[in-house]
Structures are given as C-alpha cells and as structure tokens.
Amino acid sequence: xxxxxxxxxxxxxxxxxxxxxxxxxxxxxxxxxxxxxxxxxxxxxxxxxxxxxxxxxxxxxxxxxxxxxx
Length: 70
Description:
This protein is α+β, with helices and mostly antiparallel strands. The protein is about 15% helix and about 25% strand. It has one domain. A hairpin with a 6-residue loop joins strand 2 and strand 3. The two termini are about 10 Å apart.
C-alpha cells in the first residue's frame, strides 16, 4: 500500500515530522494512507507553523511504506 508524506517544496529532502511541528531530514515523519489525506492535512494547516508561508508538496514515500495513518 502506498504511503504519502508532506515535503517542503523548496527542500524536498525535508519532510514533516510525525508531530507536525517541524520539517526533518531524518526521524519519524508524518505518514498518510492516501494523497487526498495528506493534501487535506496541508489545506487544514496551511496557516499553522511550520506550513505557514511555505510551499508543501505531497509525495509518495517508499521508506514509510506500512507506517500510514488514516
């Protein structure tokens, strides 16, 4: 099953942390079971740190496969 995460648009190697408080190059990343779920999170939190003022990109993350949350 594909797993999706949210990456920083200007630095796609940085992914949103599991807690949603920062972007990290390594460590636990927030995982979603669908592209739509990740996009809904971005849209709901676009005015909150750390997403505010950044371009976020939803990507399929093969490294997180099996770790998705609904």
